[in-house]
Specification:
40% of the residues lie in helices and 20% in strands. It is α/β, with parallel strands linked by helices and 504 residues long. The protein has three domains: 188 residues, Rossmann fold (3-Layer(aba) Sandwich), CATH 3.40.50.10180; 68 residues, no CATH class; 218 residues, glycerate kinase, domain 1, CATH 3.40.1480. A six-stranded parallel beta sheet has the order 6-5-4-7-8-9, sandwiched between helices. A six-stranded mixed beta sheet has the order 10-11-15-12-13-14, with helices on both faces. The longest helix has 19 residues. The model has no long low-confidence stretch (mean pLDDT 93).
């Protein structure tokens, strides 16, 4: 098999392990008839009377379909809110396993067009709120959460209108508020976010199964934490509004809610009826990729599941890492050139401030790799792209094209990569990278030279954020990673595969 085939195989396996059906069947079981128990990753929850289900997010439809199959007649009723058009898209793609069966006990409400809260999403949130409010201590509420859940669960505290809350959020964003600051305000003004859903469901037992699309898997950030204790108070919200000079320009409804909000967050002991369990994440997908590619004979390391930052800086980081691996494979792991490349890599990694990355430990593991074995470095996370042009693409395709350009420049400076066969892959686990049908792309060091021979100017495509058009035109689009919709989302996966070329 070629490196390209190996890269595609590891990506498909990584995504497969976090697809709703296999993921749910792995972690969720129902055992016993007389006094049934719900088992989640080995934890037991007694089903005393009725079992209800609610969910919200881009991957929740498939999760709910699998859950209903597992729960059978024990499920009394369910309500899920999912993105507009998702049922039709999955039907068209032939993904029947992601759809609810006819006569399902689960009501589906589609909303949040373009991932923005709207009237349909509000309708779904209100229905979920009413279900939660009617539960008793004998009931169990199973909550399914995935990325995109925040837009699908908008329920502003009365008398705030949805339009008023969204206008305030847009004003904050236009003044440069960070996503964390936006979430503080959203949660303070929401009935269900920031632990609100869990509080409304009390005294019922609440069990949340969470598919994380956020770096570090923070429970209070994923879908704005409807079943997680919020660490923020109304004072934090007021600080954000003051910082962006909006405190004295608020709708009367928002002023009313803020003035009557409790000054402290709900105490942690008030969440004793709640269990939040991460069942799928980027880390889990990378672990499966590592297991699979080691079976193909690769020496494998995971750099991080928290890669983030500007796509250009991340591309430079990967290029230096590839250079370092090629130097080792060429027997040039010691000397001025390798010292320079190693220094560049360490500096870039430090600048990106990757959470949880132990650079010293990673470098030690890197030095311990056997030079004669093929090597695979895996990573995941979510990069950002500064949009300057009007082209078509996504962060994964742009990252791959930028890595290709960096490798081309390094090759021109007599790098050792000519002695290695190299593939770099980056792809979105949801199967869609930006507004394209591609999940991402592949590249090798010769890509830019070959493109120049065909009259394609890579730098021009990059300056127009037009990576998809480049890959689609170059060699018939063979460098595009096309998987179709996957029904899941745990951010992005990157892989570097390198093996030494045969010595002549």
């Amino acid at each position: 098999m070629s490196l390209h085939e190996h890269a595609l195989s590891l990506f498909r396996n990584a995504v497969g392990t976090v697809r709703p059906a296999p993921m749910m069947k792995r972690v969720l079981k129902l055992q016993g008839d007389g006094s049934p128990q719900l088992l989640v990753k080995g934890q037991a929850f007694p089903v005393k009377r009725d079992l209800y289900l609610v969910g919200f997010g881009k991957a929740v439809l498939g999760m709910a379909a699998a859950a209903e199959e597992i729960l059978g007649d024990h499920l009394v009723r369910g309500i899920i809110t999912v993105p507009l058009g998702i049922q039709e898209s999955l039907q068209r793609a032939g993904m029947q396993e992601m759809l609810l069966k006819p006569h399902s006990k689960i009501q589906v409400i589609e909303g949040a067009k373009n991932n923005l809260p709207d009237a349909e999403a509000l309708k779904g949130a209100v229905a979920i709120q009413k279900l939660a409010e009617g539960l008793t201590a004998e009931d169990l509420l199973l909550v399914l959460i995935s990325g995109g859940g925040s837009a699908l669960l908008p329920a502003p505290i009365p008398p705030i209108l949805l339009e008023e809350k969204e206008k305030l959020t847009r004003m904050l964003a236009s003044r440069g508020a960070a996503i964390q600051e936006l979430n503080v305000v959203r949660k303070t003004l929401s009935v269900l976010k920031g632990g609100g859903l869990a509080q409304l469901a009390y005294p019922a037992q609440v069990v949340s199964l969470i598919l994380s699309d956020v770096i570090g898997d923070p429970l209070d950030i994923i879908a704005s934490g409807p079943t997680a204790a919020s660490s923020h108070s109304v004072q934090d919200c007021l600080q954000v509004l003051t910082k962006y000079n909006l405190l004295h320009n608020l709708p009367k409804s928002v002023q009313t809610v803020l003035s009557s909000s409790p000054s402290k967050p709900t105490a942690l002991e008030n969440y004793s009826h709640v269990s939040n369990i991460i069942i799928g994440s980027n880390t889990l997908a990378l672990d499966e990729a590592k297991h699979q590619v080691e079976g193909l004979g690769y020496a494998t390391l995971v750099l991080s599941a928290a890669i983030h930052g500007d796509v250009g800086c991340v591309a430079a980081l990967y290029c230096q890492l590839i250079q370092l691996l090629c130097l080792d494979r060429a027997g040039l792991g010691e000397g001025p050139l390798s010292d320079e490349v190693r220094g560049n890599f360490l500096q870039l990694a430090a600048e990106l401030e990757i959470p949880g990355l132990d650079l010293a430990k990673f470098m030690q593991a890197l030095r311990g790799l056997e030079p004669e074995r093929p090597v695979c470095i895996l990573a995941g996370g979510e990069t950002t792209v500064q949009l300057q042009g009007t082209g078509k693409g996504g962060r994964n395709q742009e990252l791959v094209l930028r890595v290709a350009l960096e490798l081309h420049r390094a090759q021109a400076a007599s790098s050792p990569q000519g002695r290695c066969e190299i593939i770099f892959l980056s792809g979105g686990t949801d199967g869609q990278d930006g507004p394209t049908e591609a999940a991402g792309a592949f590249c090798s060091p010769g890509l830019v030279s070959e493109a120049l021979q065909e009259g394609l100017d890579v730098e021009a495509f990059l300056s127009n954020n037009d990576s998809y058009t480049f890959f689609a035109r170059f060699q018939g689009g063979h460098h595009l990673l096309v998987t179709g919709l996957t029904g899941t989302n745990v951010m992005d996966i990157q892989a570097i595969l390198i093996r030494a070329t045969e010595k002549s």
